[in-house]
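quick one, 655 residues, struct below
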Amino acid sequence: MLDENNKLPAEENNSTSKTTENLNDEKAVVEHAENTKSKPIAVEDNVTKEPEPTIKEGAGTNNKAVDEIESKIAESSENDDETAIEHKDYSKLSLEDLVAELAVLVKEHKVQSISSNVNSIKNSFNVKFGELLKKEKEKFLAEGGNVVDFQYNNPIKSTYNSILYDYKIKRNEYYAQQESKLKQNLQAKLDLIEELKHLIDNADGATMYKLFKNIQDRWREIGPIPRAKYNDTWRTYHHHVERFYDLLHLNNDLRDLDFKHNFEEKLKLVEKAEELAELDDINLAFKELQVLHKMWKEDIGPIPREHRDEVWGRFSEATKKVHDKRHDFFKELKSKFEQNIDKKLEVISEIENLDFLSNKTRSDWQKSIKEIEKLRKKFFEIGQVPRAKSDQIWSKFKQATRKFNSAKNKYFKEVKKAHLENLNAKKLLIEKAESIKDSEDWDVATDIMKKIQADWKKIGHVPQKYSDKLWRQFKDACNHYFDRLHSKQDAGNKEQLEVFNKKKELLTEIKESAESKDEITLDELKDYVNDWRELGRVPYEMRHVEVKFNKLLDKIVDSTDIDKEEVEMIKFKNLVNGYLEQKDYRKLDSEQLFVRKKIDEIVREIQQLENNIGFISNVTEDNPLVKNVRDNINVFKEKLEIWKAKLEYLKRIDY
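---
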């Protein structure tokens, strides 16, 4: 097996280097050359004029596995060897951390070595930002926004896009330079082949071996070349290397030493290939087998002719086993892709059968949108289909969703039109309220202002971006008028001052009664509230006595078994009736707004908890975590019912 850096084990590398040292011992080579200097080198005419070869090692073996391996090696021939960058679990990083990690990779590492890391970061970022975008959209729609008005900008996305743009620029520059470098390296190797051919044609026993080893060293030092030229270039070079060794018949000791070393090294590669053929990890075996073939071709020279067919046969047979296992693996994978066709068509059919034409309200459409999103997610989670069917399936899917999107967009365009009409209607009411907010004709102005407030409630939604501003303008105009009215009504109101004193006395009486009794019943509590309300209203600046009364009720309830929900409604009705008696319509409006906000908050809390349960998989209902979430949902639902009851009570009031 190869180690993690695709290199031979240390002991094998050591043995290789020792043999190479012997072969490159310049002194030994020169001395041997001197001994054979006077002997002529026999070079046959047909050797020097032989055409460039087009066959592979092991000619006559029809092995598609070898063809595939050589094709893959050719593809990888253009790539420089780069130290792998640590591949983190980017799915666990936040958006900010992902952007920071991307910035470090692009700034501090070579662009050709970070492609896999960048792609993983892109995938994680897109998923996380998509989830964030979905939440923001749901929040926008929950607050009454129109889906066609939704926009979301986040500085982290701009920073991410900027860094990604820098990466693409650097990557393009690198590949432009790489193309030029590949051509230069190819020419350098072709020049070495010509030099080798010249060496063979003009063989000199005294110097040819040393020159040959120099050519071999320079060949290995040359970097990557274009993949389209890789195999033919190597075959040509290998052919002439074998021609050279054929010339060394007078220098048998040098040639045999090389052959022996090469034979040993190729046997090691054969054994490693045979081990890879037994691996279960198909992709790893195929990847490492490519490394072995590249070493076979580029790092190790010819072996004795009597062993070539046998060694190559074993090597190619191991290659065929890996190839066949990989072929079976992808055949099985293709079968799964075929099954995905039916699964995706089923989802498309569900989309086509979705009933959305009867949708009348925003709530109806929001429900349909969630159903469509659920089906879209299901469609994409199914996985790939065969490439030949991919476009057809995708076209059907788009056609199925296009009908829904068209109807949805039509509805929301109509909603947007209605919102604009509501916007203009509310602006007119604001103008009318502001025109009478300083009126001294109290009876007439009060009736008009009440009418304006009633008309305001009848008007529907307006675009979200205008809603708060319009409400503040309207509320300020109404409050301005009613504050003036209340100020006038409260001036010198001796009757209300008397009410205040009576309520203080009643407060003391209730407190003493509560302290003297073991338990106060609900009916008694209701009597206290009725007595309190029948006394009437207190001066505006003395309303703190109402707060004390409510606190005393809370204290009584906490010390008894009285149903807190019923008490809550008793207190609320008392509060609202107090506002009515004081004709404090501004407070009533504010109370209604507050109740609606509380309902919205509790609904969102319940939705969030229910979504959380949806993310908890493979657990039973008695799981402590699930039970805790269920208990929280029930608590919020109980609170929701109380707030809804309060809202219904406010709606029934005519003021």
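DSSP finds 22 helices and no strands in the chain.
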